[in-house]
Amino acid sequence: MSLRGRFRGSGENRGQTNIDFVLGIVVFLFAFSFVIAAMPQLLAPYDDQETPLVAERVSSTLADSLLVAEGDPGFLSVECTGAFFVGTGGSGCPFSTSDPLSDQVGVDQTYQVNATLQWNVSGDADTEVLCYNGGDVGACGSDPLTVGPAVPQEQRSVAVERRTVMVDDQPAILEVRVW
Known about the structure:
The chain crosses the membrane at residues 21-43. This protein folds into 2 domains: 3-46; 50-178, no CATH class. 34% of the residues lie in helices and 25% in strands. The protein has helices at residues 3-6, 18-43, 50-66, 78-86, 101-105, and strands spanning 68-69, 72-76, 113-119, 128-129, 131-133, 136-138, 143-144, 146-147, 159-167, 170-178.
């Protein structure tokens, strides 16, 4: 007798019963339901992953290209720094002071960006916002070196990126906040 004839007979030689089929379908449906129910929790840690990247990109853009003096990354031009933060002057700088902040730093307008240049001028434990005093950057006199909307005080996720830069042979901290 050939193998083909052996398995063609009545239902007594079947390899699967109705119970096996139902059990397989039930296990599959439970597994599929678990995956669908767990999907929001699996993706939750990645919801606000882009704001730290945007903050890092904005700080790199400012410290490495927009505000640099003679192409030296991390060494900021006093004229371009004053023009960026105060909004006046800036001839020869690679941005237009008439453009919105989001266009100047190259981010989508759905993000709010706040940039501040600060350093410990007085010698105490806290850093202070530096100011643009005519052609000089230093302790506050007239124009504070901060740009963008105020940082929200309510419970909201704000990404912060800090970089140490040099302005007119003085160290400073460029702090970028994105929300």
